[in-house]
Structure formats: structure tokens, C-alpha cells
Design brief:
transferase; transmembrane; nine-stranded mixed β-sheet; alpha/beta; Nucleotide-diphossugar_trans; Glycosyltransferase; membrane; Spore Coat Polysaccharide Biosynthesis Protein SpsA, Chain A; 319 residues
Length: 319
């Protein structure tokens, strides 16, 4: 057995089935890999169990109170493969995904982990295009961290990195890939692709998810070195949000000069982020939509971080 696909799952199965269908269509023989679902559901449907007829497929049940990191670690502990492929339960892989991951990882002793690029779904709305563009800001190069939607590495590297941090509800992928980066390079490639089926399509769900995702921001900083380039992602959401709130209060109190200064203070970093995003998305997304994205994203991240400080971290599905 060369590769073990490990997919934590909780909630609905529709997107998970699409993920499994994309695995079944891989260009390499299905006898070279296994698929392990770590489910936090009570049972699986007949449609899901039918994959046992075409894949080396198994299901491990995990308590619903455990984190996604715990599910990934449970899957890895039961994996028979030399390589581990961690997937979210809402991605569709290109047919060459596994072949390319293996080739890239085997081609260089310096590469410790490989991830494929995100592509848009058919008729993708502007928000999905934004998410995809941000994911692909750096491509065909080494990066400092990677999201956990599709990660490919050796099992020995996984163990050396200390596995996924089970104390974190979110940001666990950034924490883990940062640890892997201490062992070797993280490579983000365009030679294979995936569609994030569960990608944000509208602003309200995005707002809620970003509040939830932000709740482990500070906890994820413990025990790892934070590169200078990562600090703006923690500082800017607070700076912009607090400046806008303070400017609004100053305006209501008729302190026009103070309000203007604060609005300018918020506008400088906000404009830089909006212009960068517009450049990344090209003609597919308007400047106005890019502005709306950050005017919601920054406050949501700030609120989530504050909730995390209070320990008010809620639960969420990762289906």
C-alpha cells in the first residue's frame, strides 16, 4: 500500500461522495491506495458504503466532541500507506492529483509536503473566485504554510512533525504545516488541481465561518515561530475594524477632524488589500466586490479572535 487518503467527516454526505468519486477516478491503480473516512456521524449511508465495491475503503467512527485534528490523527494511526493524503470532505481532485503528488515529493529531498492548486467550480460566483485567487497568490513555489484541504506527505514526516494539534478547533492546518516546514519545504503546485466544493458562495455564510475560524487565531501562535509576513493577518483586521468603529463614534460626537483621521487610517491598509485582491482576481471580480469582501472579512476575524480570547469557541461541522 503506497498511499492512505484520510478524510475527516461530520454532517451531510453529498460533498463527501463527490470527493470519493474524484479519488476513484485517479489515474493510478486503485490497488495502490486506501481511503480512510473518520466519521463523526453515528452511521454512514448506503450510498457511502457502496464505495467498498470499487475502493479499498474503511470507516472509523470518532466521537463528535473531538476536533478535526483528532480525526486526522486517528486516521493516520490506522493508515497502512507510506504516504498520507489528508483531504477535507468537500474537495474534488483532478485525475492526476495522486500521480503528481507522488512525483513531486519523490523528485526532491528538500520537499516535505505538497499541495495542489485550487480552481473555480463551473459558474463560480465572485466570492468563490476571490477565495480561489487568494489561495493561488503564490504558485509553483515554496510557501510558509498551507490550508488542510489537500496535503500530501510521507507518514514518517507526519510523525516527526508531531501530528495535528488536537487542542485547536481551527487554524490547526497552519500550525501543522508550520511544523512540517521545519523539516522541509512546503510546495504549492499547479500541476494538479482541486475544486473546493464547499467553498463560500455568499457573504453571510462567509461572515459566520470567519468568526468561527478566527477563534483559534491566538491559540495557534503558541509553540511556533511566527514569520514577519504572517503578522499583518493578525494585526490588520483589528486595526481596520477599530479605526472604522472609532471614526464612526467620533463622527457621531461631532469630532469631524478626528473622524477623518481615523477613516484615513483605516483606508490605507484596506485600500492596499483591496487593490491586491483586484489584481489577483483580474476581470472576474469588481473592485466593489473586493471591497465588500474585506469590509466583512476584517471585522469577522477581529470578532472571532476576541471570542477566542474569552474561550467562547463553539463547534462546527467540517463536512
Amino acid at each position: 500500500m503506497q498511499t492512505s487518503f484520510i478524510i475527516p467527516h461530520k454532517g451531510r454526505e453529498e460533498m463527501l461522495i463527490q470527493t470519493l468519486e474524484s479519488i476513484r477516478k485517479q489515474s493510478v491503480p486503485c490497488t495502490t491506495y486506501e481511503v480512510i473516512i473518520v466519521s463523526q456521524n453515528k452511521a454512514i449511508s448506503q450510498s457511502l458504503s457502496a464505495f467498498t465495491e470499487s475502493l479499498n475503503f474503511s470507516v472509523i467512527y470518532n466521537d463528535e466532541s473531538n476536533t478535526i485534528s483528532h480525526s486526522r490523527n486517528v486516521g493516520a494511526a490506522n493508515a497502512k500507506g507510506e504516504f498520507l493524503a489528508f483531504l477535507d470532505a468537500d474537495v474534488a481532485l483532478s485525475e492526476n492529483w495522486l500521480a503528481e503528488m507522488q512525483e513531486i515529493l519523490n523528485a526532491s529531498s528538500h520537499i516535505a509536503l505538497v499541495s495542489a492548486m485550487q480552481i473555480n467550480s463551473k459558474d463560480a460566483p465572485p466570492l468563490e473566485k476571490i477565495r480561489t485567487a487568494l489561495s493561488n497568490a503564490e504558485l509553483d513555489t515554496e510557501v510558509s504554510f498551507l490550508p488542510g484541504r489537500n496535503l500530501f506527505l510521507r507518514k514518517s514526516t507526519f510523525n516527526r512533525a508531531g501530528k495535528f494539534p488536537e487542542h485547536l478547533l481551527t487554524c490547526e492546518d497552519y500550525y501543522f504545516t508550520d511544523k512540517v516546514n521545519e523539516i522541509g519545504d512546503l510546495h504549492y503546485t499547479s500541476k494538479a488541481q482541486y475544486v473546493h466544493i464547499g467553498e463560500d458562495k455568499s457573504f453571510i455564510p462567509m461572515w459566520k465561518k470567519e468568526i468561527w475560524r478566527g477563534q483559534s487565531n491566538l491559540a495557534s501562535l503558541k509553540g511556533r515561530h511566527i514569520p514577519l509576513r504572517e503578522w499583518p493577518s493578525f494585526i490588520v483586521p483589528f486595526a481596520v475594524t477599530l479605526s472604522i468603529v472609532a471614526a464612526t463614534v467620533a463622527l457621531l460626537l461631532a469630532h469631524t477632524a478626528v473622524a477623518l483621521a481615523l477613516f484615513i487610517l483605516a483606508a490605507l491598509p484596506l485600500s492596499a488589500y483591496i487593490l491586491r485582491l483586484k489584481k489577483l482576481t483580474g476581470h472576474g471580480v469588481s473592485v466593489g466586490y473586493c471591497a465588500c469582501f474585506y469590509l466583512l472579512y476584517f471585522p469577522a476575524r477581529a470578532i472571532g479572535t476576541l471570542l477566542g480570547v474569552r474561550g467562547a469557541v463553539g463547534s462546527s461541522t467540517h463536512s
